[in-house]
Each structure stands twice: as C-alpha cells, then as structure tokens.
Amino acid sequence: MLIYLRVLKESFNFAVSALTNNLLRTFLSLLGVTIGIFSIIAVLAAVDSLQKNIKGSLSSLDNSTIILMRFNFGPSDIPRWKREQFPDVSYEEYQNLKKSLPDLDAISFALGIPGGTSLKYRDVTSAGVDVGAVTHEYYDIEAFDLAEGRFFNEPEGVSGSPVIILGHEVATNLFGDTSPMGKELRVFGRKATVIGVMEKQGQSFVGNSRDGQAFVPVNFARRVYGTTKGTVFPQIVLKPEEGVDNDEFIAILEQQLRSMRGIKPGEINNFFVNQLSGLSDFIDNITGQLNIIGLVISGFSLLVGGFGIANIMFVSVKERTNLIGIQKSLGAKNKFILSQFLFEAIILSVIGGLVGLFFVWIVSIIASQFTGEFEFVLSPLNMLIGTVVSAMIGLISGIIPAISASKLDPVEAIRTGM
C-alpha cells in the first residue's frame, strides 16, 4: 500500500513540475476548460436563482391553495370561444361553499381589478397601485406580515367598511416617513381609513410585489364596480385543511359547484379549478428545460476545452519521450507513467474549473448588486458539479495520451528523443 502511495506522490510531483515548467502552455490549456465550466455553472446558477426567486414569490401562498375562476392558469383543451362564455364565480357561490364544503380550512372571495388604481392623500397621489378587494379570510390564506396595524375583521368585511391596508411602497409614496395609521385617503374616488401597513417584501417574479399593493374589503369594491363581467375578475380562493387529499377535495368542490350551476351530467365544467401546486410544477418544468438547453449549448465550450487539453497532452508526451524512455529504463512501471500524465491532465482541468467557478462567483456578486432584489445564487451543489465535471474532462482528455506514453518502448523512446 505504501509503495502505491509513493508512486502516486511521485507521479503527482512530476505532473506539477511539468505544468509549472510550461506556464504559457498551461495557461492556454486551462483557458478552454475555464470558459466551459464558467458557461455550464453560470447557466445552472442563473436557472437556480430564477427558480428560487419565482418560488420565493409564491411562498406566501400554501402549495395546496386552490383558485376557482373562469380562467385557467395553463393551456386548456376547451376552445377559447367557449371559455369566454363561462360565467364568473359569484359572491353567493362563495357563501354557499363556505357553508357546505367539508375539510375547508379557509375560503375567500376576491375581485381582480384590472389596471392600476390611483390612491390620493391630500395633494400626493400614488398611481398604478394594485388594489386587491378580498374578504377577511384572505389573511388566513396568504402569509404576509403587517408592519403596523391590522387586517380588517369579519364585520368590516361583510359591511364593506371604508378601510384599507397599504403595501410598504404605497405607504412610503403617500406618507413618507410619517405613520399612515388612522389617516384618510381616497381610493375608487371614495374615502378610506388606513388600518394597516404590510411588511416590505421586495421584488416579486410572479405577479405584483406586495409593496405596490393595497387591500380593501370586497364589499367596499363591489359597491363601486358591481359584478359586471369584464369589469372585475372574481375568484374564490380556497385552502383545504392540512392532510386532506387534494384530489378528493377538488372532486367534492367541483360536484358542489356543478350542482349550484345546474350543470347536467356529461356537460363540461364552466369554471376552472386552478391548483397552486400545478403552477409550481409548471415552473419546475420550464426551469428544467432551460437547464437542458443551457447545458447542451455550454457543453460545446467544454468539449473544445477537452480537445485542447488532449492536444496539449499529446504534445507533452512527444516532448518528454526521451525522459519517458529514461524513466522506464531505470525501472519505472507503466502505471507510474500512466498516472503521471493522468495527474497532469486532471490537475490542469481542475485548475481551469476552479478558475471558472471563481469567475461565476464574481459575476453573481456583481449581478446581484446591479439587479437589486434579484439574488444570484452559486450553490455548493453547483460548485461540486463544476469541480467533478472538470476532473472528469481532464480524465477523459488525458487517458489516451497517458496510455500511449505508458506503452512506449524504453529503447525506442530514448532513441526517438535523441
């Protein structure tokens, strides 16, 4: 065992000596691997960062959350003209489901109000605010924290009290550093009292950030907009109890809503049951495809780097033919010569990979600084992948030159070298 370790150590020392004696050639060789590893790990890091930021935007909603509406999150087999005839979900359907649906943790009725709404406080206006009109249960479905105040309660929600909860950015635009609590502003052309301010969320990659939103009781908005189709986009948001089978829950939900709407057996649903878990799976699928495309493209760079190392190793074998002959004549085994050149190729490739990882790390820091809320992440797994891939490229690129060197006849090698 000690003999093998000594042979490996001597082979390693020979490889390091050969690399340090030809610095320019070493630099040019590892440049190809550096670019290849940089390309691959940059793609993996970018896609991972995108996936993390998108899922972070969805993290406020439980993965089991269901959104009932006349629109579908993804593609549908139902023709567009037929989907456009679907009725909106109604406040009455929300009330009936709330009373009759089993295994229900929370349910909320919400109105999607298209276009930005202007909020005005005295002479200051905050335009383009995404005002969500919801029932009081929405606070139990979506996890967001309040920096000040509270969410509106059931009596305020049912009566449509003129109260409002502001996002961090909206509150700052209207009131600056002053607390907005208890102050009156105008929304939908009517007065509303601020009763809460949400914690700062930062940039969101799915939908609008909470910072640019506001919430009012749905019945307050209904008095202004009514329920005319196309004016607002009603939806019922449901959260099943923990541990409930989602498929069974959805089957009961569909059955009850079909019964309410008088849909006959054999007729298709005139509504869509959208699952948040389905959206997460869709995001995973998209990012997976981006990874594959990026890896294929980046793989060409790595292939060029591998050919570069193989070429340099063949040159190295030819230059050191005389030395190989002398080593073999003095008793060096084929394994020693083989390991010597393999170590050289692997060390060369790993150094190139580490340099590539270093550049990805630098780029991720700079990109995170310039993109604000978007955080580029270089995970330990990606670093491990980069190191292992570079070592494998060195091994594969160096195996044929190393074998050819180990099989040289000592007498012919010395004569050729002379």
Automatic annotation (TrEMBL):
Keyword tags: Cell membrane, Membrane, Transmembrane, Transmembrane helix
Domain ABC3 transporter permease C-terminal intervals: 296-410
Every MacB-like periplasmic core domain range: 26-255
Membrane topology (UniProt): Multi-pass membrane protein
Matching Pfam families: FtsX, MacB_PCD
Family from the record: Belongs to the ABC-4 integral membrane protein family.
Protein name, per record: ABC transporter permease
Source organism: Christiangramia forsetii
